[in-house]
Amino acid sequence: MSETNKAQEFHDTLIRVRYAETDRMGLLHHANYFVYFETARTEMLRARGFSYRDIEDAGCFLVVVEIGCKFKRPAYYDDLLTIRTFVERVTHVKIVHRYEVMRDGVLSAEGRSTLACVDREGRPRALPESLRGGDGD
Fold it and tell me: Integer distance in angstroms from the first to the last C-alpha of the chain?
């Protein structure tokens, strides 16, 4: 299985914390970080000329097989966050992303996710070459 190290490549996505995403104390609820990671991955892919819809229409589905987040500082209602997304590693069937959530230039959280490519029946399949070869994420 060949691996590509792309740790230097990144994409920034801006997200403003909405009231509905906070808890009673006005803090961004922890589950929403994973939603933000997905939004950031989608925007990174779009910025590189791809869309999940096109990939799925071609019979490739990227499913999350592992995800995690380490919380450093809280985010609050109406904060403007920068989600910096890195493609950390690409193998024949998987993509590993790393995330840095920044608020006012300060690291608020760090995350990582691993996506695997499967076919319509859920069986592993090779990532499209465009996603492995440096043209995509």
Answer: 17
Q: What is the pLDDT of residues 16-30, one digit of tens each?
A: 999 999 999 999 999
Q: Please indicate whether residue 23 is annotated as part of the active site.
A: yes
Residue-wise pLDDT tens digits, 61-94? 999 999 999 999 999 999 999 999 999 999 999 9
pTM over 0.70: yes
- Counted residue by residue, the chain has a size of 137
Q: Of 23, 78, 104, 119, which one is the catalytic site residue?
A: 23
Which residues, 6+ apart, have CB-to-CB distance to 18 below 8 Å? 77
The domains found in the chain, sorted by start residue, are: 4-132 (3.10.129.10)
